[in-house]
Design brief:
Radius of gyration of chain A: 15 Å
Largest interface: A-B, 17 and 17 residues
Helix content of chain B: 40-55%
Helix content of chain A: 55-70%
Number of strands of chain B: 17
Distance between the termini of chain A: 28 Å
Oligomer: heterodimer
Structural class of chain A: alpha+beta
Number of helices of chain B: 14
Number of strands of chain A: 3
Strand content of chain B: 15-25%
Low-confidence stretches of chain B: none
Shape of chain A: globular
CATH class of chain A: Alpha Beta
Mean pLDDT of chain B: 96
Largest sheet of chain B: 7 strands, mixed
Number of helices of chain A: 6
Strand order of the largest sheet of chain B: 4-10-9-8-7-5-6
Order of helices and strands of chain A: HHEEEHHHH
Low-confidence stretches of chain A: none
Distance between the termini of chain B: 42 Å
């Protein structure tokens, strides 16, 4: 399995191909959302929501054999695409790997420039939530 | 006479720029309009030449600044057709104007069990101040329902009216849908039961002819920044007898006649409601904005904007997946819509990539969005400097986005 760093480099390379064409980049991000596995309806509840100003995200984390499995959904396609990137990087990894991960692909692909600060901050909020899940599972493993 | 849009555009420096590699198309005019050069010049000139505090200074600069400041008040009076400039109160904006009336007129003349009528179309700033008042004094808030096209159901309004109704506070033109309400009829009906009427003119004053005497509204509020003027400045028009009977809003400098530690007597109108140093530069720079509107002509502006709206509807009405929201017969130049299976935020972001600025979301009208069963809309709103060519680029961009999910 590729490392977190490898996958981040892959993502950065993919976005480099798109270049400065903002519209194509957004279309591409929207398409990425299609890669998400269907979100289980039983978990579409208030406690799984990360609320942004205009978009809503549901994020579910489950631990199996020491690895965390993330599932997520959003009411907007762009946000879905962004979460799919985070999941691609962090899915099926140990809490330790997730907590130690230096996630720098967001600034490296210039997400703030492409989508503005609102979306970019939202992406950081999702990343932080994933790290909090990792911390919770790590604490559980250690007790 | 049709207007020369290029001549008008030349007066707005901000419009001449590229955004994300495309010429800027600014269609967020219901949020705020851009400023013509004469407004920017007036602001700069004030700080460079006349800056001083007004009404009290015993020197030439203060005198000049005061003169210019009061000239704007007189311009607004003429703009609204009010009787006297003492009926023109400067506020920080529409929101403050409504709060002022709620806190002063409301707390004095509206009692427990009295009723305030608003409509489903209201902006939050014409809902929340009344809810706060009702919580304080036990008055009751009533809401005029709307049709699916976004028009008030007047028969229902008439049913709500009674001797308990003390105030009807109504939006003149809806910011989210563009609906122009039949306010004259509503004002007359409200007066017939002895209620007063406040008109929220935030969206209407820049597009429609307003004559407060003909309308016979008791209060009218609006914001300068939606009429090509500076931000942070609003206007409250009120009939003299009401303003006289209302207690002051804020206490402090400028609003007093005489202060002792035992008792303060208040200044005359309009100063009674203008505590503290006002936004002098903004007030002074608002006059050239009004001059711009008046010299262009409200009818001409309305016709031009209406042509832009008509053209937008024409280009997009048969595009698969484009759902117009708010299709009232009488509308200001606001085109609210959704794209089937897409979130408005995503649509806005894709338009932004093409340099097109629109508003997305609930437009501070959550109860209206709930009534329509929507999370939000995408809103394109036009101003006098927008062009038919811009509408074409916009419509083409919207059609391209709609095609993504609606093949």
């Amino acid at each position: 399995m590729s490392t977190i760093t490898d996958i981040q480099n892959e993502i950065v390379a993919e976005f480099e191909i798109l270049g400065d064409d903002r519209e194509s980049t957004i279309f591409y991000i929207m398409e990425l959302g299609g890669n998400l596995e269907p979100y289980p309806e039983d978990f579409r509840k208030e406690e799984y929501i990360i609320k942004g100003c205009q978009s809503t995200v549901w994020l579910l984390a489950e631990e199996k054999e020491g690895k965390i499995h993330f599932q997520a959904d959003s009411n907007t396609d762009i946000t879905k695409g962004l979460i799919s990137l985070l999941i691609r990087v962090l899915n099926q990894r140990s809490p330790k790997e997730i907590l130690e991960a230096d996630l720098d692909f967001i600034p490296r692909i210039g997400m703030g420039n492409i989508l503005g600060s609102q979306r970019s901050n939202g992406l950081v909020a999702m990343m932080n939530q994933m790290k909090r899940y990792a911390l919770a599972f790590q604490t559980k493993q250690n007790t | 006479m049709p207007i020369d849009v290029n001549l008008i555009r030349n007066q707005f420096p901000l419009l001449h720029q590229e955004v994300n590699g495309n010429p800027l198309i600014y269609f967020d005019n219901a949020a705020t309009t851009q400023k013509p050069k004469m407004v920017l010049d007036a602001m700069r000139r004030y700080y460079e030449v006349d800056n001083s505090n007004i009404h009290r200074g015993a020197h030439t600069l203060a005198d000049r600044a005061t003169q210019h400041f009061e000239d704007t008040r007189e311009s607004i009076r003429a703009f609204l057709g009010a009787r006297e400039s003492a009926e023109i109160i400067f506020t920080r904006g529409t929101t403050e104007g409504i709060n002022l009336v709620a806190k002063t007129f409301g707390s004095t003349f509206i009692k427990k069990g009295d009723e305030i009528i608003i409509s489903t179309l209201e902006h939050h700033s014409n809902i929340v101040p009344w809810q706060m008042l009702c919580e304080q004094n036990g008055a009751v808030l009533r809401v005029i329902p709307i049709t699916d096209t976004g028009e008030l159901i007047l028969e229902e309004f008439e049913k709500l009216l009674s001797s308990k109704t003390k105030l009807v506070s109504l939006v003149h033109a809806s910011n989210a849908l563009g609906t122009i309400n039949p306010v004259k009829r509503i004002i007359d009906a409200a007066h017939a039961v002895g209620a007063k009427v406040l008109l929220d003119g935030a969206q209407s004053t820049s597009h429609l002819e307003i004559d407060v005497l003909k309308l016979n509204c008791d209060f009218l509020v609006f914001s300068a920044h939606k009429l090509y003027g500076p931000t942070g400045l609003g206007v409250l028009y009120g009939k003299r007898e009401l303003l006289e009977a209302m207690p002051p809003f804020l206490g402090g400098g400028e609003m007093i006649q005489d202060v002792t530690f035992e008792k303060t007597t208040y200044a005359n109108l309009p100063f009674k409601f203008e505590a503290g140093t006002p936004s002098i530069a903004e007030v002074i720079a608002f006059k050239p904005a009004l001059d711009f509107i008046t010299s262009t002509g409200k009818t001409t502006i309305h016709q031009h904007e209406h042509a832009l709206l008509q053209y937008t509807v024409e280009l997009l009405q048969d595009v698969k997946g484009v759902i117009p929201v708010g299709t009232a017969t009488e509308k200001i130049a606001v085109f609210s819509f959704n794209i089937q299976s897409m979130h408005p935020f995503d649509v806005g972001q894709l338009l932004d990539a093409r340099g097109i600025a629109v508003r997305t979301g609930h437009h501070c009208t959550q109860p209206l969005m709930r009534r329509l069963g929507l999370e939000g809309t995408v809103r394109a709103s036009f101003a006098v400097y927008n062009t038919l060519a811009e509408v074409e680029v916009f419509a083409e961009a919207v059609a391209k986005i709609a095609k993504l999910k609606n093949k």
